[in-house]
Amino acid sequence: MNETALFSILDCVDSTNNYAMGQVHAGLAKHGQAWFAHEQTEGKGQRGKKWQTVKGKNIALTIAVLPSGLKIFQQFRLSIAVSLGCYDFFQGVAGIGTSIKWPNDIYFGDRKAGGILIENIIQGETWKHAIVGIGFNINQVSFNEELGNATSLKQITGLDYDTVTLAKLLQVKVMARINALNENTFPSFSAEYNSYLYKQGLAVKLKRDGVSFEAIIRGVTETGKLKVEGTGENEFNFGEVQ
Length: 242
Prior knowledge:
eight-stranded mixed beta sheet; alpha+beta; 12 strands; single chain
């Protein structure tokens, strides 16, 4: 493992989130410290899914965060800040066409380029740490059929990238948003998040309990519920609809 300030490079781990969690529990993690892995054998995705990635081709990064000033019920505020940092990073490299798909996937056009998984350490009523896992497809150009809507930076631009250099830039962009998050900035962060929202203002097909229906995406609430128009219910929690 190589270390420079708050950025560590790992050759191979099961999951950067697992590694970071171990460092936090051992008292070895500082706010903003990041771990990048060239290879993950058991990368984590949302809702128990596996984040699939090819060795040496992509970004697998986890950042340890001390969520000072945030209460337990404000967890989506951190998710918004992280999403905006990831948007800043990818839009800056890939350009126009980048969006945030609720709750925190990064899309380019209609394809997924990156994902976020935040795991929290809570003791009693105190939110001690957030383990912010981020994956981005960078140089990979072939994906499993089950990941039919995946894309990568190389597919978008036609260029090859140094994954470590980009991971360091990603760390900077994400931490800039997290460190700027407070009661005064959150309303503007929330508005900005909604302005970047995938399919904002458009009619989409949603599915709930196996039943499909059409609704217009109107935004996301400050607590993370998807707001829609054209159906009996106007707000949905993550996991209620696809």
